[in-house]
Design goal:
mainly beta, five-stranded parallel beta sheet, three-stranded parallel beta sheet, 15 strands
Length: about 170
């Protein structure tokens, strides 16, 4: 079990090198209680924490709002991930948070989601949208527990299958 992983700067790709190979994604299978992003980090690269057991993604108070990009599949299949401070996140990509353990999401500064960004988050029951937002294809597909969207009047466009399989969603 890793208690805390601290990210203090940018990196384009991360891997753990052994004598014969580079293990990628680097934290696959690891149990991580908390990932803390410090000032100076403006992106978390693709697959960085994919298939790991991260519980929370937090940001140092010095990190400006809407300043960090979360790239493709960075936290995909982090089934225990149930807390992310979205105030600090500027953008997300395809599968960034697919198959995570969120019960609610507050998407503060995001202006769009992409292919399967939050798909398969089967515990997600509510979504709060505080910005004008475009919902990409299959963004929330398979979020079978999703019942409520607060701030739905901020949604400017909904792409195909954005809520496919969200049978509890009404109104």
């Amino acid at each position: 079990v890793i208690d805390v992983v601290v990210i203090e700067g940018n990196f384009s790709q991360i891997g753990v090198t052994t004598s014969t190979t580079v293990v990628y994604p680097p934290f696959e299978g690891a149990t991580i209680n908390k990932v803390i992003v410090k000032q100076g980090c403006t992106r978390i690269p693709s697959y960085c924490f994919a298939s790991s057991d991260v519980k929370s993604l937090e940001f140092d108070e010095a990190v400006p709002d809407a300043s960090v990009d979360i790239q493709d599949s960075a936290f995909k299949q982090c089934f225990s991930l149930d807390y992310v401070d979205f105030h600090k996140i500027k953008s997300v990509s395809n599968y960034s948070f697919a198959y995570c353990g969120f019960t609610s999401l507050d998407l503060y500064n995001l202006s769009s989601t992409y292919w399967y960004t939050f798909a398969g988050c089967t515990k997600l029951t509510s979504l709060n949208i505080n910005n004008n937002m475009v919902l990409g294809s299959s963004s929330f597909s398979g979020d079978v527990s999703l019942e409520h969207i607060y701030g739905a009047d901020h949604i400017t466009s909904i792409q195909i299958n954005a809520f496919e399989g969200c049978f509890k969603l009404s109104g």
